[in-house]
Amino acid sequence: MTLMQLKNVSVIFEDREGILRKKKFYALKDISLNINEDDLITVIGESGAGKTTLGRIIVGLQKPTKGNVIYKGYDIWKEKRKIYSTYRREVQLIPQDPYSTLPFNKTVEEILSAPILRWEKLSKNELKERMIRLLQLVKLVPPEEFLTKYPHQLSGGQKQRLNIARSLAVNPKLVVADEPVTMVDASLRIGILNTLAEIKNKLGLSMVFITHDIPIARYFYHLINRGNTIVMFAGRIVEEGDLEEILSEPLHPYTKDLIKITPSIDNLHREEEVKINYSRVEKGCPYRLRCPFAMPICSQNEPSLEQYTHKVACYLYGKKQ
Ligand SMILES: Nc1ncnc2c1ncn2[C@@H]1O[C@H](COP(=O)(O)OP(=O)(O)OP(=O)(O)O)[C@@H](O)[C@H]1O
């Protein structure tokens, strides 16, 4: 069953140029996406591709400039009734940074009980049981020992596990994990990904998994054993399909480039990146500026996402307009 749909969502921001001039650009352009119950959707792309903005749109922290965000059939920015609060509860974010998102002056018990009590009336015992279950779920054990700790008494990996527990505290149906292991020590990443996958499978959650790292995307995909992937560039979806299919038969020149420089896309065109901000390209396909296959049409129009072997937005495939 479809849980959430994004329909032609665009987000336009402004850059300040000097004191008075502002210039608009698309942080997201014409994004359509279906998220079903129990789905895994992996979002891949380099820095500035719009991944975090997409995550913020899904959890309702960012209002689209254009387009619709539909949850359980209701447009959440038009519908102000009960469905809006249901949506805000059922769709949660696991933020990237475990260090700055946890309040330093609150104990684990206070951090976990706040979101639960915002939505539910529980007795003291019920609340404690719920928190213990949550800590067990994210493998902060023995849970009783963690309840009285402050964030500064936890390691980076434990902080991120607490972040995950906090997102799960209100029994969400859909979780957006925005680079959940990027800021965690490399040696702890696999453990956290394993826990996240175990939780997703156990609770039947839908998950949007955002990463700039193909090996991490691939590792997580194989833990879940299925899942759709979108490849983003300059606020656009340039390729969409099953992750293994995309990796074995990439279509878009950008995806091919990404795969070539795996294991890490951190250095992708970093020097060039300083000069070109692709989401600010106003006409045509933004990728044409570094695409070895660019044709005249690419600077005139922007290709739409079309079905080929899987979906791709590139004039190299299908009809040329
Ligand atoms: N509030 C904002 N105001 C203006 N521009 C913004 C805002 N938030 C993001 N941007 C810009 O929108 C574009 C997309 O940013 P976003 O953070 O979504 O990308 P990303 O793929 O998540 O990259 P990163 O991994 O570096 O966070 C970038 O050019 C960014 O500078």
UniProtKB/TrEMBL annotation:
ATP-binding recorded as keyword: yes
Record InterPro entries: AAA+_ATPase, ABC_transporter-like_ATP-bd, ABC_transporter-like_CS, Oligopep_ABC_C, P-loop_NTPase
SUPFAM superfamilies xrefs: P-loop containing nucleoside triphosphate hydrolases (SSF52540)
Gene Ontology annotations of biological process type: peptide transport
Entries under SMART domains matching the protein: AAA
Native source organism of the sequence: Saccharolobus caldissimus
UniProtKB keywords: ATP-binding, Nucleotide-binding, Transport
Pfam families according to UniProt: ABC_tran, oligo_HPY
Superkingdom in the source lineage: Archaea
GO molecular function: ATP binding; ATP hydrolysis activity
Domain ABC transporter, residue spans: 4-259
Protein name: Peptide transporter ATP-binding protein
